[in-house]
């Protein structure tokens, strides 16, 4: 008799625990999200064009374009520098409310000269010191405090290039 009662009790416990474990399977919590789309200068990762006519804001996005006026590009075997330490080509600003790690890379569509850093982005901090130089071969990872800005000077080296070559690519800034 005890064995039957123990078996029945064990069966009840097993069935109850199976139903108890599966009784609560989902929960839904709704929260509001403020997800506005802003211009490059007003986004969380702020990109602001400097005074150069070669760096502009087009459709609310930063653009570097050396085909201004009647120009179709830069000269072969030349170096073009856009901006300087006191008047940068553009700036990168941490518009988050706190410090964030920023990563900066340049992905060239096709690198015609793998021995030369053809496109360089010199990142300069608020003290005027160079933090890093990003190119198609090097990247930057560093922390920026809230509202901290990096000035950017762009250098394009077309040494050994012909008028058929392209140094076009994509600058990626992530935080």
TrEMBL record:
Protein name: Uncharacterized protein
């Amino acid at each position: 008799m005890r064995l039957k009662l123990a078996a029945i009790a064990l069966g009840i416990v097993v069935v109850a625990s199976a139903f108890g474990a599966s009784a609560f399977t989902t929960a839904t919590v709704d929260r509001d999200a403020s997800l506005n789309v802003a211009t490059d200068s007003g986004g969380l990762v702020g990109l602001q064009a400097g005074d150069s006519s070669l760096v502009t804001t087009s459709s609310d996005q930063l653009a570097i374009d050396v085909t201004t006026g009647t120009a179709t590009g830069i000269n072969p075997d030349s170096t073009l520098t856009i901006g300087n330490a006191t008047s940068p080509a553009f700036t990168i600003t941490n518009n988050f409310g706190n410090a964030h790690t920023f990563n900066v890379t340049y992905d060239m569509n096709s690198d015609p000269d793998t021995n030369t850093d053809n496109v360089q982005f010199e990142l300069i901090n608020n003290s005027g010191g160079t933090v890093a130089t990003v190119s198609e071969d090097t990247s930057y990872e560093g922390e920026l405090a809230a509202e901290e800005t990096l000035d950017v000077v762009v250098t394009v080296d077309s040494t050994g290039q012909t008028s058929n070559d392209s140094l076009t690519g994509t600058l990626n800034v992530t935080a």
